[in-house]
Design a protein that fits this description.
homodimer; 98 residues; alpha+beta; 4-stranded antiparallel beta sheet; 3 helices; 4 strands; 44% helix; PCD_sf (chains A, B)
């Protein structure tokens, strides 16, 4: 079962994501990042690849797209905040554009 | 060149879309609709099909997705409001789920 991130997990895993452009919303205990691409095909291509990983892991982002921009928010509703699945999906998204 | 909808075009074409669940935001002169699906695969599948039409017509939605819900807003920035392309894309989206 998915559980909320422990403090040691936060201390060890969040800083790298924050260094990579993710921001932490303390009110929602969510992380968010804005991805910019060269055009719509690249932006939606990124979303498509991320969508398949999200479905595979049964953990889905909140996200929006306007032309070449994709805004992503990750949190785990079932636990009322961040879980390891959010960090895993965030790292995968960073890897997809890497 | 894309041009803003004329009043006769609004009178003839908008009512059908409003009957189909689209709403008109007068401030932005945009139309919006929330699409609900059975699951994420169906929601993102719809987005994927719509994305290819959008790119083909070089006219892209503002949209967001949370699990099985897709919220779409259509307007034409170049003309500061609705154009025939918005209505065309709205009708296509309705057709994709029809």
């Amino acid at each position: 079962m998915t559980e909320k991130l422990t403090q040691p997990e936060r201390d060890s895993d969040l800083p790298t994501l924050l260094d990579n452009g993710w921001t932490h919303d303390a009110d929602r205990d969510a992380i968010a990042k804005t991805f910019e691409f060269g055009n719509f095909i690249d932006a939606f291509g990124f979303m498509t690849r991320a969508a398949i990983w999200a479905e595979k892991w049964n953990h889905h982002p909140e996200w929006s797209n306007v032309y070449k921009t994709v805004e992503v928010t990750l949190t785990t509703h079932d636990v009322g905040g961040l879980s390891t699945l959010d960090l895993k999906l965030a790292r995968k998204m960073d890897q997809l554009i890497g």
